[in-house]
Specification:
The protein is an all-alpha fold. It has four helices and no strands. Helix 1 packs antiparallel against helix 2 (54-72) and helix 2 packs across helix 4 (116-145).
């Protein structure tokens, strides 16, 4: 399923499973039948079906969800949502999620019980921290050679 869904804070139930049980959201299929998603649907179906084994199909699905999260976190998406009067944070630099708006990409089959957007943001932050550390180490090494 490729769709754009919305969940309001008021829709959130005490059950934490509801947070990522997208099919249970009131506005689950808000933009599910949009023609704009046809190319993405066809691509995902083709890649999934072309897998040589069920394990490879799951791996392909994992990469598709990861790519979808990367696309959703593109700052242009946030700018477009803000233009529609929807407060959506922009994650141009690796950042910690903040506020009440949450970007969500999940595997509905729940092979991974995680929000791929959180995974992407965590990877970006880790990469930034490792690069900072590497730069500090280079500077120290350079200064000790003098």
């Amino acid at each position: 399923m490729v769709a754009l869904s919305f969940r309001l804070n008021t829709d959130h139930e005490a059950n934490s499973e509801y947070r990522y049980s997208i099919a249970d959201w009131k506005h689950y299929a808000l933009l599910a039948n949009e023609k704009a998603f046809n190319q993405a649907r066809e691509y995902a179906s083709r890649v999934y079906a072309a897998a040589s084994s069920p394990g490879r199909a799951r791996e392909n699905a994992h990469l598709i969800y990861h790519a979808a999260a990367e696309a959703l976190l593109n700052p242009r998406v946030a700018r477009r949502l803000v233009a529609l009067d929807i407060y959506a944070p922009t994650y141009g630099k690796p950042d910690f999620p903040a506020g009440t708006f949450e970007y969500v990409v999940v595997d509905e089959d729940k092979a991974f019980r995680a929000n791929y957007c959180d995974i992407v943001l965590a990877q970006r932050l880790t990469q930034r921290l490792l690069e900072k550390r590497a730069n500090r180490t280079k500077k120290r090494t350079k200064n000790t050679r003098r």
